[in-house]
Input
Amino acid sequence: MKEKGKNFIEAIIERDIAEGFPVEDLRFRFPPEPNGHLHIGHIKAIVLNFSLGKKYKAPVNLRFDDTNPTKEDARYLDEIKKDIKWLGYNWDKECYASDYFEQLYQWAHLLIDKGLAYVDSQNSDQIAFQKGSPSKPGIESKDRNRSIEENKRLFTQMREGRFRAGTYVLRARLSMESPNMLLRDPIIYRIIYSDHPKTKDRWCIYPMYDWTHGQSDYIEGISHSLCSLEFMPHRALYTIFLTAILPQKRDIPFQREFSRLNVAYSVTSKREIKKLISLGIVDGWDDPRLHTICALRRKGYTPDSLKRFVELAGVSKRRKVIGLELLEYCIREDLNRCAQRVMAVIRPVKLRIVNYLQNKKEPILIEKNPQNPNDGKQKVNFSDTLYIERTDFQENPTANFYRLSIGRQVRLKGAYIIKAESVIKDRDGRIIEIRCIYYPDSKSGMATDTSSTYKVKATIHWLSVDDAVDAKVQIFDRLLLEDDLEKLKETDFKKLINPDSKKVLPIKIEKSLTSAVEGEQFQFLRMGYFTADKGFSPRNLVFNKTATLRDSYKP
RNA sequence: UGGCCCAUGGUGUAACUGGCAACACGUCUGAUUUUGGUUCAGAAGAGUCUAGGUUCGAUCCCUAGUGGGCCAACCA
Output
């Protein structure tokens, strides 16, 4: 059978293998910078690398790209590891670019020896100015032809901490005319006096990304270095540096780029997320309106649903935005399979059954999950006074509405068929109680063939008032009004925030739900999937809405 | 005015070394259903950015154009 859906990265690897690359030498890595939490875009890179690892039985390293101590923080290290583990992946080695600082430093000396690097004493503005523009060649630095001896002396002194930050940088001596701006003598070392999470104060010069990544891949024996499209222009540097420092051209890993996952109405830039947090627009990195891994987890997305999403989204080099529907589909698919059904009423209105015995409690059995009959049934008490959804009753029903209304009947899930007779309203005309009668012979599961007699078009869920417990539900909507964050200037930032992105509603839940635990997931019958929020306890009954059910009812 | 990358139904991806476009989501029917859910059956919807070229034949190869993206941080 022809293998379908193979993405272009896999195709490249297959081709390499076919051309003689030993399968056992395959090795991948996921290289996050510890400067924030992982988000949905990273999931793509994680899944891509780890599933390649799984497919070819190749190790996958976790490597922290920790070359900039001013932006990074040790606390993100654990968060990142936690998120990857939560997704269900185990890395082979836990590596740090900082482990290679000494080697990188030695290689830099080698580069100087080869006349391919020099110490520049100009400031950042001068260097930037001299770069020119894509269509205009740059100007060579006055220090470009410094002697090798002097370069080595200065570079050594940089490392020894003899200079203030910003006074010197080490630059690769490549080409000031290259159409690839990155090749116009890129800076590869800068002076930073800032404690590093791992190396503390041992270093005051730090290598730049381009001087670090390829070499790190090489040290770890990575065969295929996968990164997102924006690194494409860096590929030239990746190869140039590696060929410059290595004795022979064998075993050089290579970089391949794929398009990052852009999700509609989603903020994934760490900078923007930090801004949202500092402005108080969201509550933190795990605010369920965000698409960080911790936020998705808190909202109730499962690892399987997320992996499936990435898988369905595919891998390509096109820069496109994928809609939220697919994500929703994936979580519904997963939760439909495993979430227990419970009855909860989000917008309660009282319903009284006038011909049902007062104070009577009648146990009713309801399937925990119709997808898995083996899960068994749960017991709920039926009585004469219930809560139902306000939206399940219409005084003047529209044509396509077939739930409850005066003179009409519906089935109460798992119990009896009722007929609405009248409503009681408050002074403002708002319905406070719906009065019904029930048909004793219509009980769910009864042998009597009453279904045709009563002609019911809908089944609604309910909760006995006496058994209902007050709880809260948090309902989220898209955070952004505008799909394209880039379109708006900073000053307009607040204008693109959806003011109704979060609603907290008081709801009624079954008593049994009070013993749920944080992260436990349910289907509130007919209402959607909900997840017990972090900090959930009998004294803090808060659920997050994970996803809505599909609904073909169009009001 | 430079270089590189991309261009397929509404959306995201497929189509082996060229053989008249497939899958998923979404949409719409119908059946089943004690969730307007699930499941099942089916439908609509693109002639592959444009113009040339090569070829018996092009989504695929070539050229030019158009549109979009990336690159000029002591960020990664």
